[in-house]
Specification:
Blueprint lengths: L1 E6 L2 E4 L4 E9 L5 E8 L6 E6 L6 E3 L7 E6 L4 E6 L8 E9 L15 E2 L3 E6 L1
Parallel strand pairs: 2-11
Antiparallel strand pairs: 1-3, 3-8, 4-5, 4-9, 5-6, 7-8, 9-10, 9-11
Length: 127
């Protein structure tokens, strides 16, 4: 079992920045690829970014590429999402997720690949 707790959400003006954090507890954190997803009201949950077990590989949705950066610190059992140049359409609940995988370079991007989820943190971007 892995428990995930997100933090760092809030209200920000368009063009601003936020840094989300996800703290993990439980089994060996470095054995998991990690991802961020988001869900806006009335919409399906969508992929945002993923990072491989060691942090060597990252993968982003086209909508956030160049603006968001995913990173992780295996010594602290944490994954982060730095969000810059935020837009109103980034408004959503952001979820952290963990995927136990034997492929150390893999960056999963589909919902059903992930084994554990956090409760989410709200990000609201005002225009």
């Amino acid at each position: 079992q892995v428990q995930l707790v997100e933090s760092g959400g809030g209200l920000v003006q368009a063009g601003g920045s936020l840094r989300l954090s996800c703290a993990a507890s439980g089994r060996t954190f470095s054995g998991y690829a990690m991802g961020w997803f988001r869900q806006a009201p009335g919409k399906e949950r969508e992929f945002v970014a993923a990072i491989s077990q060691s942090g060597t590989n990252t993968y982003y949705a086209d909508s956030v590429k160049g603006r968001f950066t995913i990173s992780r610190d295996n010594a602290k059992n944490a994954v982060y999402l730095q969000m810059n140049s935020l837009k109103p359409e980034d408004t959503a609940v952001y979820y952290c997720a963990a995927d136990y995988t034997i492929n150390s370079y893999y960056t999963p991007s589909h919902l059903n690949e992930y084994d554990y989820w956090g409760q989410g943190t709200q990000v609201t971007v005002s225009s």
